[in-house]
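To: structure desk
From: M.T.
Subject: fold request, one chain
Message: Could you run this one when you get a chance? Sequence is below, nothing fancy, just the single chain.
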Amino acid sequence: MHSDVSWQRFKQFPRLMWIFLFGSFITRGSYYMVWPFLAVILYEKFALSATEVGMVLSSAAIISVFTSFVGSSLSDRIGRHKLMYLTGILYIISFSLLAEANSVEGYVVVMTLCSMATSLWRPLTSAAIGDIIADPKTRELAMQSLYFIVNVGCAVGPMLGVWLGLTGKQSSFYLTAVAFAVLLALLYWGFNHQTRQDVALAARASSNDNLSDATSGTESDGASDGENDITSDGVNRGVNGLSSDTETSTKKAAVVSRKQIVAILLQDKLLQCLIFANILCMFIYAQMDSSLIQYLTRAGAPDLLTLISGMIFTNAMVIISTQFLLLKLMARFPLVKRIQIGLLLLICSQIWLAFNPLDLFWGWIGAIVVMSVAETILFPTMNVHIDRLAPDHLRGAYFGAASFYDLGFALAPLGGGIILDHFGGQWLFLTGAALSVLVIYLYSILDRLPRPDFAMFKAD
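Reply: Done. Structure tokens follow.
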């Protein structure tokens, strides 16, 4: 299946999708005003070493990975919107507490809560998009748009923080809490609108079916077939996935037990291979945020702060400026082929980083440009890939399982630090190139791996 980028596709986005996009912009923008500077705050307030700061961040990330899987699986049973409300409240509480934390222990606890909220929110949003947009091509464009707007927030947030004098200030976490309060209010309005719209569509479709049956003299079982068609082609997806009181009554018969969900995931060898491949991919990418900076610092790279700032800005700007252009150019390629092209670019960037002279400023920037183009192709496509693999009634569980990708991010500082200490920076990036080759191989065998027979797993 190929992609389609057009204004007509954007016009198909429901109101709730635009709320997701706006909410992601304001929450990510306020988040990145201060979160990247947590290491500086911890060092200045408590004189923690780099290893101790890394352990705090890694432990919070690892805990949040498992929280995300459990929470996303529950979303298929209790409803996406209920869990999103609870996660939003957790965001507001945890970021408010983070603005007032004054001990190492307090930071550890509250940062873990923040990481849990973040890891829950991402797969919930991705799964909710699948619930409200039935057409696969429009859904893919929606996920690409979400990834784009998140990166706009990441780029604008720190710059706006500098302009307002808020960057790196602990009290700035209140802005993130306020942003999520605004988003929750918008979501309440959007969910209610979506529910009314979907119920009206379902009622109109059912009325048309009944009228057709009365006219043609068909049997009552034909009417029930027509109702099933409404659900299967997406007209009633929002009611099934997102509505509040109506969701409980309409979905009870379609709930798959937790035991069955685990059985399905254990039998889906394709999904397991995909998760392992993407954990490796995230491990490689996360080196840019941790080990690359450590390497440049220890090696004494000239103009270090300017170089690091330039790399972060370059990464965000390349993603913002090229994402939809690349999506348009690569629309004719199937998903796996797109991912393999991105991985080839990732290999090139790792080899460039391995052999770039320490004092060649624009060489580092050039390598980050190539790496960012690879990221622009890979990251949103990974979400689309999971969406197409997931059965409709297990979308939350599949996106929750995909959150194990974040283990790559969580383990990257530790793994990269070990390679740096024992082998040096060049071997760090050559290892990244070798792992990228392994990921390409894993993607090449996906179609040969067995998947469960979903028809055997009937709803309770």
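Reply (cont.): The mean pLDDT is 76. Let me know if you need anything else for the meeting.
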